[in-house]
């Protein structure tokens, strides 16, 4: 089996994954197991809502725990503050870009698990982040977007 592709992530992003994993494994799952055991002791399981829902939710939790475990195992924690080449856009950079209509946007290049487009945090493997990787201030890059190719100019690059 091939090694999973590295899952670049900031220290804060890794802490969020770990916190969710710990909460599900340490709190939610044990409570649910107790409810299922109690419901199973009530007799007929075919019409027992607590039992049926509990088993369904337990499968969901176990699936999520497996996903989180795999993502954390593949995680390669990178602290953007330690970036030595600060003149180019690499992981963790906050990049200000301008499009053809001179609309400015500020984007932070983060791990795919921490991406939140509404807050300007784009995943490292997104089309925009791939286009911006390695760029310097003044570079013009072409981004392949669903609506068609778009050119953006890098206006500023900042690291924490």
UniProtKB/TrEMBL annotation:
SUPFAM superfamilies for the chain: FKBP-like, GreA transcript cleavage protein, N-terminal domain
Domain Transcription elongation factor GreA/GreB N-terminal: from-to ranges: 7-77
Keyword line: DNA-binding, Elongation factor, Protein biosynthesis, Transcription, Transcription regulation
Domain of life: Bacteria
Domain Transcription elongation factor GreA/GreB C-terminal: 87-158
UniProt keyword S-adenosyl-L-methionine, yes or no: no
Coiled coil: none
InterPro entries in alphabetical order: GreA/GreB_C_sf, Tscrpt_elong_fac_GreA/B, Tscrpt_elong_fac_GreA/B_C, Tscrpt_elong_fac_GreA/B_fam, Tscrpt_elong_fac_GreA/B_N, Tscrpt_elong_fac_GreA/B_N_sf, Tscrpt_elong_fac_GreB
Tagged with keyword DNA damage: no
Pfam families hit by this protein: GreA_GreB (PF01272), GreA_GreB_N (PF03449)
Function: Necessary for efficient RNA polymerase transcription elongation past template-encoded arresting sites. The arresting sites in DNA have the property of trapping a certain fraction of elongating RNA polymerases that pass through, resulting in locked ternary complexes. Cleavage of the nascent transcript by cleavage factors such as GreA or GreB allows the resumption of elongation from the new 3'terminus. GreB releases sequences of up to 9 nucleotides in length.
Stated family: Belongs to the GreA/GreB family. GreB subfamily.
Name recorded for this polypeptide: Transcription elongation factor GreB
Species of the source: Sphingomonas hankookensis
């Amino acid at each position: 089996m091939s090694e999973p592709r590295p899952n670049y992530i900031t220290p804060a992003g890794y802490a969020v994954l770990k916190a969710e994993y710990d909460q599900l494994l340490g709190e939610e799952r044990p409570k649910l197991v107790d409810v299922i055991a109690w419901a199973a002791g009530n007799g007929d399981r075919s019409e027992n809502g607590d039992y049926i829902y509990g088993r369904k939710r337990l499968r969901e939790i176990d699936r999520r725990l497996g996903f989180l475990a795999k993502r954390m195992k593949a995680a390669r924690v990178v602290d953007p503050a330690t970036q030595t080449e600060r003149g180019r856009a690499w992981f963790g950079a906050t990049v200000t870009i301008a499009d053809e209509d001179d609309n400015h946007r500020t984007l932070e290049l983060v791990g795919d698990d921490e991406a939140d487009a509404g807050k300007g945090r784009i995943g490292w493997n997104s089309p925009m982040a791939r286009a911006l990787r390695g760029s310097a201030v003044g570079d013009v890059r072409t981004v392949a977007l669903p609506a068609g190719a778009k050119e953006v100019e890098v206006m500023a690059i900042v690291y924490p």
